[in-house]
Amino acid sequence: MPADGGGAGPVHCRPMTGRRNAYLFLAFPLTVLFIFTLAPTVLGLGLSLFSWAGSGAPRFVGLENFRALLGDPRFTPALRNTLVFVIATVPPTVLIGFLLAVAVHAKWFVGKTLVRTALFLPTVVSIVAIGFVWRWMLDAQGGMLPIVLRGVGIDPPDFLQGGPVVSFFPWLEWPMLSVIAVQVWRTIGFCMVLYLAALQGINESLYEAAEVDGAGRWHAMRHITWPQVAPMTVFLLVTGVIGALQVFDIIWAMTNGTETNATVVLNLYVFREFQQSRLGYAAAIGVVIFALTVVATAGQLALVRRRAG
Questions:
Q1: 73 shares its domain with 30
Q2: Are both 212 and 158 inside the same structural domain?
Q3: CA torsion sign, 119 to 124 to 125 to 128?
């Protein structure tokens, strides 16, 4: 009996030991998450209710910072440009990345490794370096692209300081369109690589059955490939929208830090307010970005669940 009792003791302790080890493994990442994500978010939400210049005691102003935002003529262009950037970069990036992945994944495609590497390379290069290079290439005076266009008889627009692209969309000017084009070029490789990973998991028998039924490549891609990679599409859309709402570096690099109403976005607005030591007001803008992120993410996930149901 003692032997049996002694042998039974460790069996009962194993779940407790495993649970304790799990908590120990989670302790460090949860601590880092709390210090660098949760705590700054909560403090930022609180700071938006105060007026503070970084020194002295903060002064509680309630919702005054948000009321001031509604009357600030700089806020509307920043909000508009941010939303335009999101709409003009995320869907095209995801769609082009999917089409490229389907093409590269095809059996007839030659040079898959080279193309995959070339398209993914901009993703790992510093975004600031990319911005500086493109600013040089698009410069109206000595940029490579304007010189090439003039060489073929086309009068190029001023990509970095020009006016509206078309008259009936006066709010979309050449500088913002240039930034959007660079952003799409930079991120399609990332989407393509993730889609390639998702395509590896599709059962080939689905395509064989579709071929037997007489379905062409377009129908197979539309009715088999696209639905099968839907979870990856949701992931790319959600993370893409979150990243686009927080855009800063590419616009700052391509405008040389001299953004106008055509290129200013919410994060640049926050940056300028921090430079002027208006920390509470900057935090209020940050709350707006946070609210847009939550609403956009929740909306996308709700739409996905409704379609799945």
A1: no
A2: yes
A3: positive
Cα angle at 45 between 40 and 46, to 5 degrees?
A: 95
The answer to whether 243 and 190 are in contact (CB under 8 A) is no
* pLDDT at residue 207, rounded to an integer: 85
Is residue 147 assigned to a domain? yes
Any domain includes 54:
no
Write down the number of H helices and E strands in the chain: 15, 2
129-143 burial by CB neighbour count: b if 16+ within 10 A, else e?
ebbeebbebbbeeeb
**What number of residues does the chain have?**
309
Please name the residues in contact with 229: beta carbons below 8 A apart, sequence gap of 6 or more.
98, 195, 198, 199, 202
| CATH number of domain containing 149 | 1.10.3720.10
Same domain, 40 and 164: no
Check residue 12 and give its pLDDT: 53
Q: CA-to-CA distance for 95 and 245, rounded, in angstroms?
A: 19
Q: Is residue 52 part of a domain?
A: no
Contacts of residue 221, defined as CB under 8 A and 6 or more positions apart, other chains included, come to 102
pTM for the model: 0.86
Mean pLDDT of each 10-residue bin along the chain, 309 residues long: 49 64 82 86 90 87 92 92 95 95 88 88 91 92 90 90 82 91 95 94 86 83 90 93 93 85 92 91 93 92 78
Query: Which structural domain, as residue segments, surrounds residue 29?
Result: 2-44
List own/partner pairs for 274-282 with CB under 8 A and 24 or more apart.
277/53, 277/54, 278/53, 279/47, 279/52, 279/53, 279/54, 280/47, 280/48, 280/49, 280/50, 280/51, 280/52, 280/58, 280/61, 280/65, 281/51, 281/65, 281/68, 281/69
Rounded Cα distance between 71 and 172, Å, is 22
Residue 149 in contact with residue 79, Cβ under 8 Å? no
Burial (Cβ within 10 Å: 0-12, 13-18, ≥19) of residue 215: middle
